[in-house]
């Protein structure tokens, strides 16, 4: 097979055999578990991938697509076969301001797309925490982020995709048209599919006009319960760009890590609200309307862009702050907005019960709760036992509250058990039939959730 690959990829510096594959390519963003692969290939264009997939399909060789490797649930951990590293396919193909779209290759970083379009007064709203993730990776996990409460998630901004199926078939699906009810919407099969149905090589993304004014407000409360109790009031009053919750004791991790401080240091919990609008007058009206609706609540408004950046840097650094001290296991659960307080209360009970520290924060505007389970000084056996106990408790409570086991990280290999418990068998059988239709030999990310019954 290697000889045949060399005929496809004439530049042998883009082919790495088993012994020469760096360890980082055998894992995901956590680097806690590692798989194995026979070869790693860095393709440069669509035609190379078509040829690779035809060869892999002919011999029934597994293929794991990889972007920046920032996935957190094992979706990029290979199970033998080929790793397809898309990092060299990172070009901007076309910015079309007249249709408010940009077409890019799969391996381009999110941050590069955002920075590029903003030069032209345009805006790509999806904003997951990892800005060095690839666009195709975002699409494969339907990434969300802080701005989802107002602008939606990645799915809402995918206009068209170029996809290569397991047998090398090339699909061009979707278009620049705003409306499309011409047959089944095939692009939505691939969004959130975690590389199990096809290899995304190009994508056309929807853009909007860049907001002219932005402002952050920090509200302080005596408890996390009081903070979350005000979420519904905020959402009934206006639609913020972002609405985040974090306890003061959790925020301290970010403060210590970044060297910055939140305003309102006396508060026990915070709601971080971001507003955007057409101009400063628009922002002023929104802010006053919100303050009036919340009543006697402490709040602080950053005095400069630097202070604003510090607040969001603290919020965005919480996971890195934890990882600088101890190993952590990330949880990405979503519950109905009116059940956030119930889930947070349960995490506190579970923390006391297991004697393991749990740090909860997240997107209050859409019910997406992020949780860091801290390893601290647990040995390997204790860590695995505690993780199993905590996972079982968290996902069971999530199920009781009519939530789901993933909001934006995906299922991968880490959440298969909880995916199977949450999703009816009939639904899973339909998913498996789609997989079988598009990937008859089961070679694409064959260890990921869709193949587990």
**Order of the strands making up the biggest sheet:** 15-12-14-13-17-18-16
Q: Which structural class should the secondary elements be placed in? A: alpha+beta
H/I helix tally: 16
Helix content: 25-40%
Let me know the average pLDDT: 96
Number of DSSP-assigned strands: 18
Name the shape in a single word: globular
Which regions have little confidence, pLDDT < 50, spanning 5+ residues? none
Largest sheet: 7 strands, antiparallel
The CATH class designation of the largest domain is: Alpha Beta
Task: Indicate the radius of gyration in whole angstroms.
Answer: 23 Å
CATH-derived topology of the largest domain? Uridine Diphospho-n-acetylenolpyruvylglucosamine Reductase, domain 3
How much of the residues is beta strand, in percent? 15-25%
Q: Please identify, by name, the CATH architecture of the largest domain.
A: 2-Layer Sandwich
Number of domains: 4
Our measurement of the CA-to-CA distance between the termini, rounded to an integer number of angstroms, reads 32 Å
């Amino acid at each position: 097979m290697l000889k045949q690959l060399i005929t496809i990829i004439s530049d042998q510096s883009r082919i790495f055999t088993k012994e020469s594959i760096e360890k980082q390519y055998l894992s995901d963003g956590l680097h806690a578990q590692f798989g194995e692969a026979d070869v790693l290939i860095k393709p440069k264009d669509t035609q190379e991938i078509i040829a690779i997939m035809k060869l892999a399909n002919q011999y029934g060789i597994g293929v794991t697509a990889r972007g920046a490797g920032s996935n957190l649930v094992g979706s990029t951990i290979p199970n033998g076969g080929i790793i397809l590293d898309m990092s060299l396919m990172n070009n901007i193909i076309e910015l079309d301001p007249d249709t408010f779209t940009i077409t890019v290759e799969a391996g381009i970083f999110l941050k590069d797309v955002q920075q590029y379009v903003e030069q032209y007064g345009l805006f790509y709203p999806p904003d997951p925490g990892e800005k060095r993730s690839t666009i195709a990776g975002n699409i494969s996990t339907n990434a969300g982020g802080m701005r989802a409460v107002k602008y939606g998630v990645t799915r809402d901004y995918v206009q068209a995709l170029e996809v290569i199926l397991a047998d090398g078939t090339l699909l061009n699906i979707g278009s620049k048209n705003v409306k499309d009810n011409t047959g089944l919407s095939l692009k939505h099969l691939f969004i959130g599919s975690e590389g199990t149905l096809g290899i995304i090589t190009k994508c056309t993304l929807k853009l909007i006009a860049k907001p002219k004014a932005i402002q952050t407000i920090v509200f302080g409360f005596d408890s996390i319960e009081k903070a979350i109790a005000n979420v519904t009031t905020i959402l009934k009053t206006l639609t913020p760009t972002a609405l985040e919750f974090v306890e003061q004791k959790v925020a301290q991790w970010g403060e210590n890590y970044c060297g910055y401080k939140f305003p309102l240091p006396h508060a026990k919990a915070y709601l971080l609200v971001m507003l955007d609008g057409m101009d400063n007058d628009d922002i002023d009206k929104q802010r006053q309307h919100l303050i009036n609706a919340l009543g006697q609540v402490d709040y602080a408004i950053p005095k400069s862009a630097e202070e604003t950046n510090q607040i969001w840097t603290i919020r965005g650094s919480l996971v890195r702050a934890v990882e600088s001290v101890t190993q952590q296991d990330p949880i990405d659960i979503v519950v109905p907005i009116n059940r956030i307080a119930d889930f947070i209360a349960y995490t506190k009970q579970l923390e006391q019960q297991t004697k393991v520290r749990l740090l909860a924060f997240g997107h209050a505007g859409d019910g997406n709760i992020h949780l860091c389970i801290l390893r601290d000084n647990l040995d390997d056996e204790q860590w695995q036992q505690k993780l199993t106990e905590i996972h079982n408790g968290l996902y069971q409570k999530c199920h009781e509250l009519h939530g789901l086991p993933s909001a934006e990280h995906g299922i991968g290999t880490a959440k298969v058990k909880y995916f199977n418990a949450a999703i009816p068998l009939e639904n899973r059988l339909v998913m498996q039939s789609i997989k079988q239709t598009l990937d008859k030999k089961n070679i694409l990310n064959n260890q990921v959730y869709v193949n587990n019954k």
